[in-house]
Amino acid sequence: MHCLRRIAVLLAVLVAPITLRGQDMPAPAAADTTSALRLFLDCASVGCDFDYLRTELTWVSYVRDRTDAQVHVISTSLGSGGGGSEVTLKFVGQKEFAGLDDEIKYSTKQGATSDEQRKEFTRVLKVGLARYVLRTPRGASLAINFNVPNDNTPQAPVHDPWNHWVFSLGGNAFLNGESQSKSQYVSANLSAGRVTEDWKFRMSFSGNSSKSTYDLGDGDLFEANSHSYFASGLLVKSLGPHLSAGATFSGNSSTQQNIDLATRFAPTIEYDFMPYSEYTRRRLILAYSVGLVRYDYTERTIFGKDQETRAFENLSLSYATRTTWGSANVGISGSNYLNDFSQNSLGVYGGINIRLLKGLSFNINGSYNRVRDQITLSAAGASQEEILLRLRQLQTNYRYYTSVGLNYTFGSVFNNVVNSRLGNSGGGGEIFFD
Predict the structure, then answer these.
(1) Which one of 50, 165, 372, 421 has the fewest CB atoms closer than 10 angstroms to its CB?
(2) Could you tell me the CA-to-CA distances from 221 to 6, 12, 180, 218, 256 in Å, in that order?
(3) What is the pTM of this model?
(4) Residue 19 above 50 pLDDT?
């Protein structure tokens, strides 16, 4: 009790001067959120940093619900051939700005830091919002600055010593343990690609290897070793605003799947019923491929095979959209071996995120796969330890996944204040600046 009294007295001594000073100082003026342009930002792109935006872009009022906004901005991005990103900002006017829509695209450079990306995102967002702000009571305070380039300086032709090639290399290593178990894990990845308006070529390699040791008691040790290596490539030729043709090739090795080496080659054709220029916002894609796969197995399979070559085909149809009410995607995919149509797989998937009412959103995601093509299963089966640790693929007739969520937010519709104090407390992590 004496300890608690001392703590209470100490807190009173610390807080009292702060309170007195606060009484002597005039209260800050309340933000004028009535005349500011009300913005709802729907972000799914690089460079979108809400805290940074609320600090740097202060002449709009950020709202939590799209129905309260005068402008709804949807941002999306795609990786570009040069290793950067192409960002698309779709401006959708609402209320008195209904029908006043716009779209701006810009590109970020390869290796741009997160700070450079968010600065460019903020700059472009400001430019896009100018036409709306000009039509509000605050429009009289709007001014535009333009840095005029020196046109008298001769422009040297752009020389690309890499000829559009982009490479990436990375790796990770992990080691952890406790008194009765220890494990180590190593992974690596490598990719290379070249993208132009007419052609796209990409190849990549990724792999991981793990080793874990468990003390089962009485001096018994169980050692679990596994690896998975995967290499893939893609070559695509653009045949117009809707059609593309190309080929995929891959190779993989997996202890879980009983594969020493599997190599696959498949010519593919793809048709997007929407123009590819609208890919980030909506797409309806039909794709068909047919090819060959060569298997070399680690152990003899349940069909008595040590190695074999199969012809296969795959057909898929998928749709995705992102708009003011939310986002949705759905698709169906089927494949089979041409020498035995009974060995096939069929999968469906879908997801939707809907803003139902003011502050209320609903999301559901799921997938289901009917499996009839597990030709790589080992005839030796799996031990109890391998089953528990998922070191072996098990025979199944289906796989499924589902999730459902509902979220409701209420209170003030305005969200303009940034308060980063103790923002990293409890997480135990670190903050990094580029």
Answers:
(1) 421
(2) 55, 60, 9, 9, 21
(3) 0.70
(4) no
